[in-house]
UniProtKB/TrEMBL annotation:
Organism field: Candidatus Erwinia haradaeae
GO cellular component: cytosol
Claim: Nucleotide-binding is one of the keywords in the record: yes
The name this protein goes by in its record: Glutamate--cysteine ligase
Domain Glutamate--cysteine ligase as annotated: residue spans: 13-380
Any single Pfam family the record assigns to this protein: Glu_cys_ligase
Database matches in HAMAP family: Glu_cys_ligase (MF_00578)
Reactions the enzyme catalyzes: L-cysteine + L-glutamate + ATP = gamma-L-glutamyl-L-cysteine + ADP + phosphate + H(+)
GO biological process: glutathione biosynthetic process
Amino acid sequence: MIPNASDALIWLESHPHCLKGIGRGIERETLRIRPDGFLATTTHPRSFGSPLTHQWITTDFAEALLEFITPVDDNIDHLLVFLRDIHRYVSSQLGEELMWPMSMPCKVHPDQPIQLAQYGSSSIGQMKTHYRQGLKNRYGALIQMIAGVHYNFSLPFSFWKERTGIYNSQDGKEAISAGYLQIIRNYYRFGWVIPYLFGASPAICSSFMNGRESTLPFEHSEHGMLSLPYATSLRLSDLGYVNPSDHNLNITFNNLSEYIASLQIAIQTPSEKFIAMGVQDDQGNCLQLNTNILQIEDELYIPIRPKRMTLSGESQLDALQRRGVEYIEVRSLDINPFSPIGISSEQICFLDMFLIWCAIADSPTIDSIELACTHKNWNLIITEGRKFGQTINMEDGQTKYPVSDIGHHLLHDLNRIAKTLDSLSEKPRYQNVCQRLKASFNNPNLTYSARLLHTLKSHGLERTGLALAAKYRTQLSQEELEIVDKNQFTNEARRSKIRQKQIELRDQHRRTNLYNVK
């Protein structure tokens, strides 16, 4: 059912200090909305600085889609306070506008234009906007307005040193990369527990469909809401972020060179569908960066990705190839509507334990058949995960196991990891999380999606979302900043604008020199 991790857990319990210094970072997206619930039509506030170069406040797909980014932190409380400070500052600067507290978009008028994120006149700025134009033309703008939380996670070098016997990170590049890919393979097999426990998009506004067809058996409410009775995360369904359905990308995670090579093929292989679309329209306006299956590697929509910090002018794949995997990016978290900042300490603690388990539990190579089986399991949990007695297929794709049984087996292992982590702080923080979440596998009605759907059915999605948005705006804007003061936000906004201008002047100088040479 799940791998026997007994020996690995014994090893971990005898090496607790190798877990000191876990690196964590959060990227939280949120839509700016008007008080009536429709998308904001204003541009990214200038008081926030340049979204191209700001360290903490930027935009994602559109001008109205904010993204908050924390620095890497090894302290959960400090990390969450930093994220909260960003929310506090932004809440105080938005005027009448609100931050939508859910993943799926709010009301969208069918004729309302969605302005793509703008990053200035530099080459990199224009590329980022043109890439988004390609996403809009390939998949539709509304899908790109879905918001989520990305959790960046890295194990300390001491863990890899003790686990693999390496002496430094450069010499251990292959071993560390293999370790992170092991995490990813186990995440594909068992990561559906994340939407099961924390999925928070069991319903959507009917305006999101906007004429789109779906085979999902939606229930229609009098509030203009569509829902599935046992759904956990429609954000992760075929309505949201999925791999291109008409291309067999065949991307697996058995070794780094294989992953890089398969992704490079997708980036370099033309698509008939996108060739027909063209790169420019008759007026010379950009339609997409290129006609390949993926414009760039960021277009690969998967629940977890291997990552590496890039140097100036370096692509993500180049960085991975040269220096190996540095951390992983978990991309399957919905916005937590029960938290003013979209994520909670409980979720971070669970992710820590689960990802550590993924790192030490046996993780054999995964072939295309098993990968297809994992996709079916994810889809089942996403659309029907809370059905009592729900089962999923494991291993051979034929044997069925109850979700509750797998959850309890997993939590048994995670509780041992919790004790190891708690021994470093002498507080039962992680064990308390295990105890609370255990009840969710006994009773699916205790999961985030079930609790949210109960409220949505009573009050409607729009009313619930607006009430939470107003509550959180008032709460956050009245709180004092704790880590980043107002002057630091002001200085970072000023610095980011200067940096953008420097990049644009440098590009202009290069273009002038090229013209003079010709």
